[in-house]
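Forum: Protein Structure Q&A
Topic: Joint prediction for protein chains with partners

I've read a bunch of threads here and the consensus seems to be that you should model interacting components together rather than docking separate models afterwards. I'd like to see that in practice. Below is the full input, 905 residues plus whatever partners are listed. Could one of the regulars post the assembled result?
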Amino acid sequence: MLTIILNEWKILVRNRAIVYITILFILSLVSVVWMGVVQNINQKEIQQSAQKHIRSQWDNLKPMNPHRAAHYGSYAFKPISILNSLDDGISAITGNVLKLEGHVQNEIVYSEASQAISLSKFGKLKSSLLLQYMIPLFLIFLAYSSISSEKESGRLKLLVFQGVSFFKLIFSKSISIWFYGLFLLTITISAQTFLGVVNQEILYRIALIFLSYACYYYVIACLTTYFSAYLKDNTSALSSILATWIIWTIFLPRIWGNSVEKFYPLPSRQDFKATMKEDRSKGIDGHNPTDERREKLKNRYLKEYNVDSLKQLPINFDGIVMQEDEEYGNLVWDKHFGSNYAIYKSQKKLYQLSGILNPFASLQSLSMGLCGNDMVHHLDFLEKAEKYRRYLIKELNDKHAFGGSKTGNWKWTVDETFFKSVEGFNYRSPSIYEKIVHYIRDIFFLMTWMFVTTLLLRFNINKNNLL
Amino acid sequence: MNRYLKIVLIEFSHFSRSPFKITSLIFYVLAVIYGCQNGYALIKKHNDEITSIKSGYKSHIDKMLVQYEEIEQGSIKKPRRDPSVPYWAIWNTPSYAFKYPSPMMVFSLGQSEQYGYYKKVSNWSTTFDNDLAQEIANPERLSIGTLDFNFVLIYLTPILLIIMLFNIGGLERDMNFNKLIYLSNVTKKNWLMARFLFYFILLIILLFSLLSFYGLLSGVFQNEIISFFNLLLLIFIYVLVWFTIFYIINFSGSGSPDQALKMISTWLILCIIIPGAFHQFSSLKHPTNYMTDYLDVSRDQKYAIFELSTDVHQSKLVESFPNLKNTKYAGDTTVDRSIVSKCISALVNELNKKVASQIEKSSEDKNQFIKRYFLFNPVIYFQNKVNAFSKTDYYAYRDYRQHIQSIIDKKINFILEDTWNKVNIKKEKYIQYVEIFE
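Posted by a regular:
Agreed with the consensus. Here's the joint model:
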């Protein structure tokens, strides 16, 4: 087997066109990784400077009433994932700026895609674009005639007469082509490791990325060789594998992607807002002094502090009301945003099932997930930003309530010392260990495809197909 | 001439005997139908949503009218937000800005999924408010993209052509009887062209028929006939460009696999690699805007205006809106805080307009950068042209933002004029407001 693989590589190396294309690939992959890293650094600097700018405004706030500061709010800017230079996933589509303020959980806005005319439908020229589209196609072109041309030239008969087993022959040819894919993959991953930032977490992720692409290339190499062995000539083999590639990469992701939204429909923004407003109205209204629920809360506090009027309270009841309003609001946001997030997750699970038919879908999902640019990571950012918003507003409301002011004193202010004491928003991207559970399906389907294509080569090719 | 006509007709029998090609064509037709159907469904969804919003605000207007009657009859007290004051009357005048879907949207969803298409407009609104965000959608689905007609045309048509054309001329070379053909008094150039012509005619007829059907269904012929014919012309040119590229490949090809390889590589380079490269370059040159300028206006600068004294507000208002000098209040010698404070949104709006124009300019710079290289990135040119005909491109939404701004301005002008002229708003005047903003 090793002899066949070495022999195949010798043939590859002797072919000048392949050598030139390989050099071109290596240069393209390295320069694309480099460009991605440069873009990442630029974008990260801009994001960090925006975050610093907002923080310095917060730190230097003029003396202000805490509730006014809650309306003033803060902003969270979605950070760039370090492996964005490999695969930017959904990052161009999602918004980048999230306002964090009192009374409301906002949605993330200002996506890159909304800031210019339409560009590539397949994403930026990142390594993932080459690794997902170009290299598999090149592997197809290397493999489609690997057996059929041996058949057509009659060389196959000679090899068989020399005692080579069918399976060993076909499998070795697949493996030699797979190794070529692995070679290009190694170049990309090495470039990313040398040019980009590396730590233990990134190394784990990079290793998993390598394995995912390696699985997919294995499937492509085996399937193409299978077609080459099974079908009667080069043309049939090429047509069939190209048709499969087109269905996998162009048709199925879109059609399945559209269909999952029909199975698990999301509410329209209008309905979403209206139902949230409806639920919100059932709680306390912090800004309405005649609100009935506020009255009940007031009586509770008067009783607790054993006083007759709000003026006698040692605390500022307005702050209490605001926090109560917030707590109720949080239940509402959790219900409605939570429901949307649950739908997103169901949609993703259903989409991942398309991996049964389409290993490309599993690869794509794994690639953007491992690079930290899929919906799972996006939702993680939104959830952590919301958690921070709740912390921020609670700090302000508690200061309002217990900071030394009296009820009704809206002119009472706190100075920058307090504002500086409120922690800023520092987002830590989750480790792959925390999120790997979301990608089990993708991993399973890719491995199943590896198994199935190996079985195809082992049991579905016989003498009749080959000779 | 008859000989070439015969070749065109014979190609039909070649085609009809190839189940692979017929299946591909059927898939393609299904994709066109699916794409148009997606567009049609989105038009319907947008229209339904707009109708539902409109019906919602009609009930609000009815409530307001009853309130005016009751106040005028003296049966209720004026509420905290007194509707006889111009500011609150205008506040209670429902005004939505809609981006009505063009019937041409059936052919391209374009960037419609990146933007909102309805917005409740108040005097405090801006063109970059949170509620102008895109419809709620799965970001991964958006990233993969929707299979609309534009996608089918731009990306799948060349693939269909590859399947149809890759073995034309190649098969004969594979089987080594290509020279026999040229013995029959036909030139290679014309023989290939005649065979290509069959597929060109077939595809054009098919596309034009399907498009006309969906055009009829969505009402294109009543409203957008020029855009529709422009689209047909664009399709004709686009398909012709691909036929020309593939013709050159086949003319110089050395067999079906060689031709298929070159065709698919050309597709990959023109449809994926070049657009991807320009996408990447444009992001390097014009990184994502985090809108900090806008955020500064919407917070710090707005708060700075709030901090100013009423005197300063008044002088700034007069400076920005010289027409106010001719109002009733301008003649008063004392400063009326209740009048001036209701007009502060006008000052904030001026700041918002200024920063919005900077943001639009930076987006336009990025657009110009992309457009400058359309010659090297032709597929994206065609893609954006189809979006433009369908009014789903960036510019259609920029126009929509301008429309929103014009409503904000109108609201502010009414607040300024009527507040400074101390107009007492009654039912009739409220109805006028409603009609103006309807």
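The first strand of chain A starts at residue 74 and ends at 77.
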